[in-house]
Design goal:
This protein is an alpha+beta fold and 115 residues long. 15% of the residues lie in helices and 36% in strands. Strand 3 and strand 4 (80-91) form a beta hairpin. It is globular and about 40 Å long.
C-alpha cells in the first residue's frame, strides 16, 4: 500500500520517513535519504525498518506498531540535537504504519508556556 505524501514533504528541512504496518519503508524525503545515506539512503525504500535498527530499537518499533503508540524523544549525535517523533498514521481510520520525523534543534531554543 502506498503512502499519500504531500508534495511539500520532499524538500521539508526535517527528515520524514514513512513505513507500512509491516515496517516496510514506503517513503523517505530528501533529508531522510541524506541522513541515512551511509545505510543506503533512498535505497531503503522497499526495505524493512527492522533491518535498519539494532535491538532494543527493533523491539520498540514492533511495540509501537502493535499498540499504535507514539514515541517522542531527543537525541544528540556529533553535537547536533534532534527531536524524534515516531507515531502511527491512518487512512480512513485504519492504521497504516508509522511516520518518523527527525527535526534538528537549535542549541538555544525558547520555551513558552501558554494558558
Amino acid at each position: 500500500m502506498e503512502a499519500m505524501i504531500p508534495d511539500w514533504a520532499d524538500e521539508f528541512p526535517g527528515a520524514v520517513t514513512v513505513c507500512d504496518r509491516e515496517g516496510i519503508v514506503l517513503y523517505m524525503n530528501n533529508k531522510a535519504a541524506e541522513t541515512f545515506a551511509k545505510w543506503g539512503g533512498a535505497e531503503l525504500v522497499g526495505k524493512s525498518l527492522m533491518d535498519c535498527h539494532p535491538e532494543p530499537a527493533r523491539a520498540k518499533l514492533r511495540d509501537l506498531m502493535a499498540n499504535r503508540e507514539t514515541n517522542v524523544y531527543t537525541i544528540e549525535k556529533n553535537g547536533v540535537k534532534k527531536l524524534i517523533h515516531q507515531g502511527p498514521w491512518y487512512r480512513g481510520g485504519e492504521f497504516q504504519g508509522l511516520v518518523e520525523l527527525s527535526l534538528e534543534l537549535p542549541g538555544e531554543m525558547p520555551h513558552y508556556k501558554r494558558s
